[in-house]
């Protein structure tokens, strides 16, 4: 993967960035995503934010190597602190983290969302946390994608402003993904159900906490199986 050729995961994220966007890519690593989008003529300007010095330095080198210093600014900052009001950012991408961490980054930087019209989020795990946050903060999903790369399954969630309510199963599994129910989706949830069953089977019911955990897992199993037809 490089600035000319993204991974399938980041290529999917890139496909949702509107043409002419002013982008903030948070946790940008080598800044491959904003560099790729700049080369494609898809963005007007980008901020590549990194909180760790090593990846920050890698991003600086990549932007310089690609000759994109006039359109991409790399900043060493924690989360959305990389964004300044003068940047007039309208699109944010955050990829390659857990859902709860992505939520904490957005929640902590809420004041930076004033001009933002679209969030493109790629959680490695626990996408449910993002859907819950969206409902509680007047954002709604406009699309979702599930994909498999290097034997790992990823979800990409695209949000814009709006009010919406999701059922328990939509919050867990994704309203758009539920409509499609492609093979990767079925693989993911069959795997989750099998893992939950193993945990249920191993639980010692001697304590109240373990009984509650067993009941919680059995509810999840029932919810998911109702959708995947086991």
From TrEMBL:
<dbReference type="Pfam" id="PF04816">
    <property type="entry name" value="TrmK"/>
</dbReference>
<protein>
    <submittedName>
        <fullName>tRNA (Adenine(22)-N(1))-methyltransferase</fullName>
    </submittedName>
</protein>
<dbReference type="InterPro" id="IPR006901">
    <property type="entry name" value="TrmK"/>
</dbReference>
<dbReference type="InterPro" id="IPR029063">
    <property type="entry name" value="SAM-dependent_MTases_sf"/>
</dbReference>
């Amino acid at each position: 993967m490089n600035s000319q050729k993204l991974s399938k995961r980041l290529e999917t994220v890139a496909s949702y960035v509107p043409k002419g966007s002013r982008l903030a890519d948070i946790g940008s690593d080598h800044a491959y995503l904003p560099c790729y989008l700049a080369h494609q003529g898809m963005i007007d300007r980008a901020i590549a934010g990194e909180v760790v010095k090593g990846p920050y330095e890698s991003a600086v080198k990549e932007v310089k190597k690609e000759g994109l210093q006039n359109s991409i600014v790399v900043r060493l900052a924690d989360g959305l602190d990389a964004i300044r009001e003068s940047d007039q950012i309208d699109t944010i991408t955050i990829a390659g983290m857990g859902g709860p961490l992505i939520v904490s980054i957005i929640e902590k930087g809420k004041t930076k969302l004033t001009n933002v019209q679209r969030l493109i989020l790629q959680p490695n795990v626990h996408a449910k946390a993002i859907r819950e946050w969206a409902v509680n903060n007047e954002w709604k999903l406009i699309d979702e994608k599930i994909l498999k790369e290097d034997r790992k399954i990823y979800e990409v969630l695209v949000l814009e402003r709006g009010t919406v309510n999701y059922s328990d199963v939509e919050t867990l599994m994704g309203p758009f993904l539920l409509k499609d129910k492609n093979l990767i989706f079925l693989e993911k949830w069959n795997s989750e159900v099998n893992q939950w069953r193993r945990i249920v089977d191993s639980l010692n019911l001697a304590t109240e906490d373990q009984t509650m955990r067993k009941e919680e897992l059995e509810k999840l199993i029932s919810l998911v199986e109702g959708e995947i037809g086991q």
